[in-house]
Amino acid sequence: MTGGEQTVQVRRAVAGLAVTGLALAVVGCGSGGNEVAGVGTDIAAAAESVPIPDKVVVHRPGLIDTDISPAAVPAWPGPHPSEFLEPSPPSGESGEIAGDQAAAVYVAALDNPDALWNVGGIVQWLVVDLLP
């Protein structure tokens, strides 16, 4: 970890399903302490230490045409892409985000593996990466 990075505890509920015959069991998996999320279920909350970078790079590989409702995807937590994205040949766009906005975008991206975001009512494909 470099001098400017922070570390944050990210908690996610991790659940696995196993079906055997007619029995359905919900089991937890992951590292960290087990916490019961509800009565009658065994869902473990996994706590991980994640280094938070000072800068991230965001790629928009291309515009997508999807019938997914903007309400069905998370709201983009960073600045509007038009504020920082620039053409990145041979296709798409990329740009950097720094500071507190980089941290917010990075943490939100950890919980959004599909990288589809609601940006002002439009679904956009924005992939967040650490800078090399």
Q: How confident is the prediction overall: mean pLDDT? A: 72
Query: What's the main sheet like?
Result: 4 strands, antiparallel
Strand content: 35-45%
Structural class: mainly beta
> What general form does the structure show?
globular
Helical coverage, percent range: under 10%
Please list the strands of the largest sheet in the order they lie side by side. 5-6-4-9
Order of helices and strands: EEEEEEHEEE
Distance between the termini: 13 Å
* Low-confidence segments: 5-47
Count helical runs. 1
Radius of gyration: 18 Å
- According to DSSP, the number of beta strands is 9
Report on the structure:
- The two termini are 13 Å apart.
- Helix content is 8%, strand content 42%.
- The strands form three sheets. It has a four-stranded antiparallel β-sheet, covered by helices on one side.
- With 132 residues, the protein is mainly beta.
- Mean pLDDT is 72; it is low at 5-47.
- The protein has one helix and nine strands; from the N terminus they run ββββββαβββ.
- 12% of the residues are buried.
